[in-house]
Here is the input.
Amino acid sequence: MQSKNKNDRGHIVEVEFNQQQEVVLKQLLEDGKYGNDYSEVMRNIFQEFLRQTRM
Here is the structure.
């Protein structure tokens, strides 16, 4: 998944998803809470994970 947007800093990360993970990702994308494309959703989910797990 790659996208170019105003926040793109030129980093490319390759990821693989199983079918179950892909279903969840598509639901999050449709919801729009975490972003409007896969790269935004992945970045925002990861940032949320970091916020919740920092001590």
